[in-house]
Write a sequence for this structure.
């Protein structure tokens, strides 16, 4: 008969061994399924605007990359359309106070 401490140790080791199978967070994005979407965005005036948009889009599940250009008033987003719809991307940009022209 094992002691409670021995049972707890065996359980901890078993759980630690299974940890890679229990990974948390979103599944990896399939780069082969990704598409590039170009959006016209009004209200960007400087590099800080570009950085704010890119940082916000990096938080959206399914977005692989985002590049904003205030001079061209555009944002280019590479994303998995099954996980990050154009509407979700536009909402993230608009949340910052910019206008996505559709």
């Amino acid at each position: 008969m094992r002691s409670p401490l021995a049972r707890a140790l065996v359980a901890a080791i078993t759980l630690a061994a299974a940890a890679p199978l229990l990974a948390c967070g979103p599944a990896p994005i399939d780069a082969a399924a990704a598409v590039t979407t170009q959006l016209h965005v009004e209200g960007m005036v400087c590099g800080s605007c570009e950085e704010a948009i890119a940082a916000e889009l990096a938080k959206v599940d399914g977005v692989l990359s985002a590049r904003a250009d205030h001079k061209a008033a555009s944002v280019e987003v590479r994303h998995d359309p099954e996980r990050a719809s154009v509407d979700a991307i536009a909402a993230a940009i608009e949340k910052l106070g910019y206008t996505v022209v559709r």
